Fold each of these.
Amino acid sequence: MTAETLLERITDYANRPNPYPLYAELREAGRAVRQADGSYLVGGYHEILALLHDPRISADPRSRPTAAHGLPAEVPQPPFLRLDDPEHHRLRTLAMRPFGPPHSPGRIDAMRGQIAELTEELIEGLRDRTHIDIVDDFAYPLPVTVICRLLGVPREDEPLFRQWSDAIVASADVTADQDTTERDPAGQQARAEMGGYLVDLAEQRRGQRSDDMLAAFVNEPDPALRLSREELAETAVLLLIAGHETTVNLITNGVLTLLRHPDQLDRLRRDPGLLPGAVEELLRYEPPVHMRERILLADVDVAGSTIPENTTLVLVLASGNRDPKRFSEPDRFDPARPDNQHLGFGSGIHLCYGAPLARIEAHIALGALIPRLGTAALAQDPPPYRHNAMLRGPRHLPIEVQPPA
């Protein structure tokens, strides 16, 4: 085993339950390590943070040259998450407008009450059950219902877009032998079908009064601020998928971590005021997103090595979150950890735009679950994980709950 095979080992499904020893190996191997395919893994906190703020790295898969001709690869128009400024800034700004003006409560804060009600409804449905799958019974339906309400997507169509979402997410994983440009035909077809579905829903609201985001997009009165049909499709797909995929992982990883640390679970039960800090610590300790891929637009020095232009970088955010050069006792879960500037939502211009919603959902969800986890135990540890190495989280999290005496 060598450092040049680290990405292959990290993405091997056998290591999905616990990739953290491999992340430690990455940091010890040089913090920026060349792989057999010519890409580089970067695992140090400070190196990742600097690169996320460096304009010489690109998120746009079209900036990657083909192996044969040194020309941009033929890939579809990416969502703004995979674009660079100034186009990224323009589309991100337009996509965020329906959420409300910057630095104001806006649409998301207004949903706190609804999120709390949905949470209580889900928990009420679990009250008399002794066998529960946290993913299917709670962590998945909560954020899906929330994002459906925000966008204006009928909840009854959830089985349809779940199939599309699974295909898109599977095609966007980081692998040792394929990049994340979503060249997989099934992923491209799913993205096209979901985009068409969402644009059709939006068009049904054109000229009508509705408080959902699809209506806000198509009824924008200022022509300069309107999304094109293609931009609307990509933006709506991104909002729908990103609006629930990472939150499912955040809530599920949260429950898994708390049940593995009963002392901290009891601490949070006795002192709910620690919960906001616990959510931040979960974002550091077991983040929903483990890696991001970038392309160098120029030669860049990383950790003392000059990495040439056009090289693919895999920024291992979850490794940076466990870097002992940044965090004291990084492998310890501490809900009261001070100065917790983690990389759970990334950083720089691509800082997760859904972070406020994810934090609210996780805070409300875990706050409601914690009092009920005192008699719960993991039915399987480790649980079965999703295949995706980038969006890492359990596919199922079965727990056993003892009925109250």
Amino acid sequence: MAGELPSHVVSAISFVGRSGGAIKLLGGFRKPQHSVPDAANAATNAFLARICAGELGEQAEQLFQDVRAALAYKRKDVSLSVTSPVATLAAKDFAVELAYAVDEANPAHYRVTTTLRDLHDVDLARSEPFARVFAGRFSEIEFMFAKAARVEAVIDAIEALDGENGIAVDYPSDYRDCTIRVEGVDAQVRCSGVALEVIFPRGGAPAELIDAFATVRDAFQISKVLSGLIGG
């Protein structure tokens, strides 16, 4: 099993989940007064903010109640702010943001991004109540580097290993990013120079994603360049 991540590493991780649907199916969409957007811009996102308010409010309230009940939080431990198209749950141990936006690739649809951040307690992440609330919600991890890295240097460091420790890399000709394959991790690991993104094929609870990220970190210890990305 991969080594446990230090709390300061976990607190720097953002857990991201994505979902969405057809804009015309939102409760606030009215035919024939409204038309489906054909582009993603400030105007269409403002329109979405008006018509998604009902769904956003319900989802945010349900999350608030689930978190409060599962983690036995008192009133001062957790709060909820909803200003469509964004809702923010601020708990004493973490924060969660729900954000609606017009899908840039398909403007007739909206996307909902759920982001869990500022999680400082690894034991809480591994607890059964926490897993119950957030089961299946997240499919991505984002780790922002404390200091930007040169993608070319990351590529060179991995290629110098010649496959040692089960690490390999693919990249485009302009080196704008690179995709790292780590043996034992069923995920796409992408380095952009400012962040490391680990994208999983299916959603999971934070503890599952933490374990996979720990495997990546352990594999990176073989190289000074790579180990410097995630830290000790």
